[in-house]
Amino acid sequence: MTAKTTLQDFYRSPKLYIQLPSGGEFYDEDVIDWPETNELPVLAMSPKDDLIVRNPDALLNGDAVVRLVKSCIPCIKQPENIIAPDMELILVAIRAASEKDGMLTIEHTCEKCEHEMAFEIDLTVAVTDFESIAELSEFSLSNGLTIAVRPANYLFSIQTAKAMVEQANLLGKITDENYINQEDERIKNIGKAFDTMAQFNYDVLLNSIRYVAIPDTEEKVDDRGEIAEFINNVDSKIGKEIEKVVGDINNGGINKVHKAACEECEEEFEVPIDFDPVSFFLTS
Known about the structure:
By secondary structure, the chain is an alpha+beta fold. It has helices at 47-52, 56-61, 63-72, 84-98, 123-126, 154-173, 183-207, 224-233, 236-250, 277-282, and strands at residues 16-18, 40-42, 103-109, 116-122, 130-131, 138-140, 146-149, 209-213, 220-221, 253-254, 257-261, 268-272.
């Protein structure tokens, strides 16, 4: 074994190597500098990184996430261009590399017998348990068109989610008590809140479409304006098909459900795993 003789010999080294749900399909070489193994080395967080992720506001606006990924996975040159399903797995991998035992504790109360229990999930195993989204990138619609989609950019998705939460909170405040003798104003504000949330969903849908291919031709429409016009004028049935396609690819990636059985009554259950960056890192 070679002796360590300088401080550089004690710098961080990769703790694990990961593949991505996308397989890198949606990136060029400016975004990720892929090793020959097609596996990305993951370093543990530095003391500075650990301080960064303690700031919930920075996590919510994405700034902390971008800096964290640049520090812990240097092969990713442009974290701001990483799609949401890939970023979810990346953040889990960074926590797995940084935790002493790489475990996530989940608490659950059995709905059948009300027994309270806690169980652990090995994050180093969790990063290998994902659905590939590469094959979800192209679908045929019932009207003969083929639509190609990509997951939403991670920063766009968390900013949209943040705005949706703000609108939901606003709806909660629009109560009769706050608008006594102002029924028209209350209804008006409720309508505005719902319109805003609908616009956010529309933006996610539009930003997830890469192109629409016309049958029996080689024509692939990728102009954003034309695609927007298409979405605005298509039958609602086709619109719902597109929404499902976009939802499937955006919700793909790392497995977010843990299956287990109650320790007391042996009732089987599923528990959702929250990989939201704020709750995920602030509870680590």
